[in-house]
Design goal:
five-stranded antiparallel β-sheet, binds biotin, 33% strand
Length: 251
């Protein structure tokens, strides 16, 4: 039985698809209301960053969710979304991706997709889930060459935005319904761990503002927080920040 049905509204240009969905939500939009835009003039990323969004270069997508799981697990929405994007890129473009904590999608070790979930207050508390996928190399600024990549650079055939969107809507529907089932939260953690080498045993550096920590990843907490084993052996729980793999120095 499918109860979650995304309904997509298309725009040429918006400030941010997340803003647009939040506005629709404040006017009573239903769960599943989604916005796709050709360009964003003020696209936002995690940690107050800008998400450059030139016309036609990316998939800029947001959707309104009213999760049924308890609010202390809503952080798992982005983990569920990362799995859905990973499913969609596999289905539509035969691209294999890996998830970097918390929810960056990497292909060939470079970022191909970013995810931003924002909690909003309407008559009921809700989530706006935003997803940006680089379709061409124009989607990311030149200073990110080497760290970012696009579908056009990696896929073995030209893939239309609409094909990726259709696959994303299918994958999100399945993944979101599964998250809302009993033990859905536990399943998201398990499946995230199976799609990411960042969950267990990876030497990483975590930067959060002025704080920089280095340690070995030791799994996820129930809400998706990263467990990091420091050199002292102590486990530190990370809830925000940027993670990069630390590679052993060559002699
Ligand atoms: C990140 O990796 O920092 C998250 C980037 C999220 C970008 C998407 S594009 C669609 C939606 N609208 C926004 O303004 N941001 C998200």
């Amino acid at each position: 039985m499918t109860s979650f049905q995304p309904k997509v509204l298309r725009y040429e240009s918006v400030s941010s698809t997340n803003n647009e969905v939040a506005q629709l939500a404040s006017r009573g939009a239903e769960e599943g209301t989604a916005v796709v835009a050709d360009e964003q003039t003020a696209g936002r990323g995690r940690l107050q960053r800008t998400w450059t969004s030139p016309k036609g270069a990316g998939l800029y997508f947001s959707i309104l969710l009213r999760p049924q799981i308890s609010q202390d697990r809503w952080s798992l929405i982005t983990f569920m979304a990362a799995l859905a994007v990973s499913d969609a890129l596999r289905e539509a473009c035969e691209l294999e991706t890996e998830i970097k904590w918390p929810n960056d999608l990497l292909a060939s070790e470079r970022k191909i997709c970013g995810i931003l979930a924002e909690v909003i207050e309407t008559t009921r508390r809700a989530v706006v889930l935003g997803i940006g996928i680089n379709l061409t190399s124009e989607a990311y600024p030149t200073e990110l060459v080497g760290q970012a990549v696009s579908v056009a650079e990696l896929a073995t055939r030209p893939v239309e935005r609409e094909e990726i969107l259709a696959a994303l809507l299918r994958a999100l529907t399945l993944r979101y319904e599964s998250l809302n089932e009993p033990d859905g939260a536990g399943r998201v953690i398990e499946e995230w761990m199976s799609r990411s080498s960042y969950g267990e045993g990876k030497l990483v550096r975590v930067t959060n503002g002025d704080e920089i920590l280095t340690g070995i990843t030791r799994g996820l907490e129930k809400d998706g927080a990263l467990r990091l084993q420091l050199e002292t052996g102590a486990i530190k729980t990370i809830r925000a920040g940027d993670v990069v793999q630390v590679r052993a120095e060559r002699k």
